[in-house]
Amino acid sequence: MRPLVLIPARGGSKGVPGKNIKLLNGKPLIQYTIDAARATFNDNVICVSTDDKKIKSTVESLGLEVPFLRPEVLATDTATSEDVIKHALKFYKERGYQADTLILLQPTSPFRTAQHIKDALTHYNDNLDMLVSVKETKSNPYYVLREENEQGYLVKSKVSNAKRRQDVPTVWELNGAIYIINTRSIEDNSLAELAKVKKFEMDELSSHDIDTVLDWKVAEEISKMDE
């Protein structure tokens, strides 16, 4: 395996301003992901992709080099994860390192550990397009989710005749913590088009993702649990 570990960290967070370097129990949020990555991979294959000089400075204060600042076109709300991935792969390829496996670790998942990453890697092989971390969803589309039809009435999001929640199929929710992507698979395809995708299951606590102020407050309580 020739890995590239990508930690995408844009500066312009709206839900929790400055969240990637905001202190969570005394540590910048991004440090949790960097520490997990460094316990699994060498620094020279870990890339923090950011457009923000403060994030770059914080990461480099931890002893990890940030190889570039993202171009402005990749620092907008419309820039996609796929754009950021392909930019990083191209950057390293032009410098002589062609990764065959891209490990994407979002800094908003502070409770994903090095052990999670190592365990996920054991489930990955190069016959897959992608391995992605998931949790069992509470918002099961067979049972609790509804959509409005053309008449404005609520209808089941996914039809089932089950009478009890226990009788509907298990549905998995992407938790955003770990994506292991075959770089060959995304040369000519978008992430949404990948077909050979398998899951790596994580528990709800480890899956916690920070997007809102409420998510941050929950994370603060979780981070105190191991004290």
Automatic annotation (TrEMBL):
<dbReference type="GO" id="GO:0016779">
    <property type="term" value="F:nucleotidyltransferase activity"/>
</dbReference>
<protein>
    <submittedName>
        <fullName>Acylneuraminate cytidylyltransferase family protein</fullName>
        <ecNumber>2.7.7.-</ecNumber>
    </submittedName>
</protein>
<dbReference type="InterPro" id="IPR029044">
    <property type="entry name" value="Nucleotide-diphossugar_trans"/>
</dbReference>
<dbReference type="Pfam" id="PF02348">
    <property type="entry name" value="CTP_transf_3"/>
</dbReference>
<keyword id="KW-0548">Nucleotidyltransferase</keyword>
<dbReference type="InterPro" id="IPR050793">
    <property type="entry name" value="CMP-NeuNAc_synthase"/>
</dbReference>
<dbReference type="InterPro" id="IPR003329">
    <property type="entry name" value="Cytidylyl_trans"/>
</dbReference>
<keyword id="KW-0808">Transferase</keyword>
